[in-house]
Amino acid sequence: MSDLPTAAPAPAAVHRQAVDGFGTVTVRPLDPDTDAGTVHTWVSAERAVFWGMNGLTRDQVAEIYAHMAGLDSHHAFLVERDGDPVALLQTYEPDADRVGECYEVRPGDLGLHLLLAPAGPGGAQPGWTSALLTVVADYVFRTLGRTRVVVDPDVRNEKAMARFLRQGFTAGPVVVLPEVDLPDVYLPRKEAQLAFLTREVACGG
Questions:
Q1: Cα torsion for 28, 33, 113, 201, to the nearest 10°?
Q2: 3-state SS record for the chain
Q3: How far apart are the first and last CA of the chain?
Q4: Per-residue model confidence as pLDDT tens for the chain (205 residues)
Q5: Confidence (pTM)
Q6: How far apart are CA 130 and CA 25, in angstroms?
Q7: How far is residue 110's CA from residue 89's CA, in Å, rounded to a whole number?
Q8: Edge-to-edge strand order for the sheet containing 74-81?
Q9: Which of 15, 126, 141, 186 supports an S-S bond with 27, CB 3.0-4.6 Å?
């Protein structure tokens, strides 16, 4: 019998959905330890500069998500397609976040950040982003029962904004998210373009 430690099982999925022509997509809580290597590779890339984690070590990334795991208002998830990690999803309560200082929060609102994994060896696949956003919307609106999503990409991140608009989001105001300087978290001042997606638009009612 081997004395080697066995890897802890991945956290159970909170949402699973089969997408025709794409595969089975699952959303599961991020494990700050076992998933840190994957996430660090993604956030360290130049393409992820607007995510705000360029230059961090793997351990620093793990510490950030370990801190988030202890919060009731902010949550991190790994999105997988047929078992392979394809995106990092973060959700948050807007009234417990700095974005809540910049717009009128409604009951049922949920904020989210979505970072897509780099394209595989075959390059970007048509419909990839739309499929993942559709699953995320179903999770937020059908599983969680929320009524509106708010996103706050950096105003310079035109690619992200274009993706959201194609998915049915409506552009909101450009706002300045204030600097957050706390013992456990630091977020620099950010000029952001808000955008909103309602359950009626995403789910047809």
A1: 0
A2: CCCCCCCCCCCCCCEEEEECCCEEEEEEECCCCCCHHHHHHHHHCHHHHHHCCCCCCHHHHHHHHHHHHCCCCEEEEEEEECCEEEEEEEEECHHHCHHHHCCCCCCCEEEEEEEECCCCCCCCCCCHHHHHHHHHHHHHHHHCCCCEEEECCECCCHHHHHHHHHCCCEEEEEEEECCEECCCCEECCEEEEEEEEEHHHHHCC
A3: 56
A4: 445 555 567 789 999 999 998 999 999 999 999 999 999 999 999 988 988 888 899 999 999 999 999 999 999 999 999 999 999 999 999 999 999 999 999 999 999 999 999 876 665 577 889 999 999 999 999 999 999 999 999 999 999 999 999 999 999 999 999 988 766 667 788 999 999 999 999 998 6
A5: 0.91
A6: 13
A7: 12
A8: 15-19, 23-29, 74-81, 84-92, 109-116, 148-151, 190-198, 170-177
A9: 15
Bridge pairing between strands 148-151 and 109-116 = parallel
Contact at 8 Å (CB) between 176 and 190? yes
